[in-house]
Amino acid sequence: MPILTLDQLPFGQPAVITHLLPESIPFRRRLLAMGITPGSHITVIRTAPMGDPLEVKIRGFYLCLRRSEAQAISVVEAKQ
């Protein structure tokens, strides 16, 4: 299973967050407060027409993340 960042994940593909990359330091506390923690299951639902932000489903709720924030979240694809 390849390790990728959340912005590279195909739509509808479930994944598990492995860790937050060093690029997330400026907004790491906000991501953690929103429930984006290692071990959480996450799915990219859709993107806005211009490609930013991304809508994701995590912990039973929907959340929009900027593409720059999604690039700082490392994930591994989960089995469907």
Features:
80 residues, 6-stranded antiparallel sheet, single chain, mainly beta, SH3 type barrels
Summed up, what is this model?
The chain has 80 residues and is mainly beta. It has two helices and six strands; from the N terminus they run E-E-H-E-E-E-H-E.
Task: Determine the fraction of residues in helical runs and give it as a percent range.
Answer: 10-25%
Distance between the termini: 13 Å
Classify the beta-strand content into a percent band: 35-45%
Q: Which regions have little confidence, pLDDT < 50, spanning 5+ residues?
A: none
- What is the alpha-carbon Rg in Å? 11 Å
The biggest beta sheet reads: 6 strands, antiparallel
Average pLDDT, rounded to a whole number, is 90
What's the CATH C level?
Mainly Beta
CATH topology: SH3 type barrels
What does this structure look like?
The chain has two helices and six strands; from the N terminus they run ββαβββαβ. The chain is mainly beta. Strands 1-6-2-3-4-5 form a six-stranded antiparallel β-sheet. The chain has one domain: Roll (SH3 type barrels), CATH 2.30.30.90.
